[in-house]
Design brief:
With 433 residues, this protein is an alpha+beta fold. It contains 14 helices and 22 strands.
Length: 433
């Protein structure tokens, strides 16, 4: 068969691109390097698949970042604007409608996060792959790796497979994913192919990943989760706050910080920790500052401490810390506060009280790195958006070449935003071919 469209990659973006193109009557060949398509999709959200978020567009855009969509490289400030056109045609309501029309019941949970009602990511995958398998215009080839894209006079002409086969096609959508979860097939091959064709690749770094810290985490604290706390990332060289989380959960790991707010914070920390050569990295210049009492101002907390010290004057400090902390945090507090364990509260002086107040509002950890690609939910970096048409996802350098999904220099916070990027860019490419 001669094909109108060749889609490289069978993840969320590639599947949606193929579905959209085939739905418009195009003859589609989907090439998947693994023995099964959609491997990452089927494990996302711990197997539950948070496929989107019901937040309106204006509240969604600030959650999306890019290094090349605008004048800033800070996550969350420019990537969403670049997506406005694609989102204007296929956003959360259109995505939800598509899955519901294809037999997937959906539910909205805390934080406006959308999941399949069954709690199974597999249902999302089956709806997409079923649509392709039932379309006579679609051919799916698994265990098939593309080596390079062939061009002639600035036009994509064919895909060359690793085993040497040439597949001619003048419309090629690269949706090969990033580098996160490499066991699912995300090996960065798309970056290499795009770079060979002249595209700029913003260095990929792991994002939405646990943070490593210099401070030793006490054994009793490993695995413990704090609720209703807030985390900020501070650049020690400038004193500026580069990230401030909402109030949420944080989990201590054996080498640092995990849980939802630490994972979200990694988007602000990963680039300076990983980019460039070793001499230029800022390892040790970033702090994660944990506010244990985000519901109180420093002045309100200080007044509460004054009252507690007055009412519990005969209790010793070691025991009285339970007034303000869970038991699991007490060893860390004693180690960092340098206040005598057995001092009675009525002997705590003003400097020590203020030291305790500052600590409760800002437990500081020095960030030294992140966990590796095996634990990263998404990739930060990728094909420069300056070289891609945001309406069609077509390359500005090579006619007939399109990009979709994590391969692009787009990443977002947790909450369904990253999968929405994949589905919307895949849909835009599928519409355009």
């Amino acid at each position: 068969m001669d094909y109108d469209v060749l889609v490289v990659g069978g993840g969320a973006a590639g599947l949606m691109a193929a579905v959209t193109a085939a739905g418009r009557g195009r003859r589609v060949l989907l090439l998947e390097k693994m023995d099964q398509a959609g491997r990452k999709l089927r494990i996302t959200g711990k197997g539950r698949c948070n496929l989107t978020n019901t937040n309106p567009l204006r509240d969604t855009l600030p959650h999306i970042g890019s290094s090349t969509a605008g004048s800033t490289n800070k996550p969350g400030q420019s990537g969403g604007v670049w997506l406005r056109n694609a989102y204007g045609r296929f956003f959360n309501q259109e995505l939800m409608q598509w899955f519901e029309e294809h037999g997937v019941e959906l539910t909205v949970e805390r934080g406006n996060r959308v999941y399949p009602a069954s709690g199974k990511a597999l249902d999302i995958f089956l709806a997409l792959i079923g649509e392709l398998e039932n379309n006579p215009n679609v051919t799916i080839r698994k265990n098939t790796s593309v080596k390079k894209i062939e061009t002639l006079e600035g036009q994509a002409t064919a895909a060359i497979l690793e085993r040497g086969e040439r597949i001619p096609c003048r419309h090629i959508i690269l949706a090969t994913g990033g580098l996160s979860y490499p066991t699912t097939g995300s090996t960065g091959a798309g970056y290499r192919m795009a770079e060979e064709l002249g595209h700029t690749i913003v260095e990929p770094v792991p994002a939405l990943v646990p943070l490593k810290c210099a401070e030793a985490i006490p054994d009793d604290l490993v695995g413990f989760t704090l609720k209703n706390v807030q985390l900020s990332i501070i650049d020690k060289t400038s004193g500026s706050t580069t990230f401030k989380s909402g109030i949420g959960e944080l989990t201590f790991t054996d080498d640092g910080l995990g849980g939802p707010i630490a994972i979200s914070a990694s988007r602000a920390a990963s680039r300076p920790l990983h980019s460039g050569n070793q001499a230029n990295r800022q390892s040790g210049n970033l702090s994660a500052v944990l506010d244990l009492k985000p519901g109180l101002t420093t002045e309100q907390l200080d007044r509460r401490l004054l009252a507690d010290l007055d009412q519990n004057g005969t209790r010793i400090f070691n025991d009285a810390l339970r007034l303000w902390l869970p038991a699991e945090l007490i060893p860390l507090a004693l180690k960092q506060l340098h206040i005598e364990y057995y001092k009675r509260l009525n002997q705590i002086n003003g400097d020590e009280r203020r030291r305790l107040c500052r600590w409760l509002k800002g437990v500081e950890f020095t960030i030294t790195g992140t966990r590796d690609w095996n634990e990263a939910i998404v990739t930060q970096g990728g094909v420069s958006l300056a070289e891609v048409n945001p309406k069609t996802m077509e390359s500005r350098l090579v006619k007939g070449l399109y990009f979709a999904g994590e391969l692009l220099d787009l990443d977002a916070d947790t909450g369904g935003y990253n999968l929405q990027i994949a589905f919307s860019t895949g849909h835009a490419a599928g519409e355009a071919v």
